[in-house]
Amino acid sequence: MSDLGARASRPPAGAWRWLGIGCGIVVLALVVVFVGSVFSAKRLLAWGLARTGQAVMAALPEDTTPIQRRQLREKLDCVAKTAAERRLDETSLGKFGQAAAAALADHRVTTEERQRLLALLDDLCQAALAHPPER
Question: What residue spans define the domains of the chain?
Fold first, then answer.
């Protein structure tokens, strides 16, 4: 009787195989989700920087010269590119985000705010170009 009870409490040999396959599928799914989130975070960062840049450019005062617009656009592009290459840390990007949000609070960028953003972007771009990209 005890032998019969021991056999009944053990799962069939095929169940272990399917359990292993199921666990393997779960692990593979988690790896795919993790890799996908890394790439989507990069896209999300690029999208956010592009959107912020567009908002800043649209809110510039009318007396901004084409040269000043081009300088600001070049610096925005430099920061977006170096951020995508993971040369900038979150703290640096956060400072830019806070400065841009403050400048856009009233939906227009003053000359002083433009100069401040340009100086911050220039500092970020120079610092990022001094560091090799992370892998």
Answer: 2-129
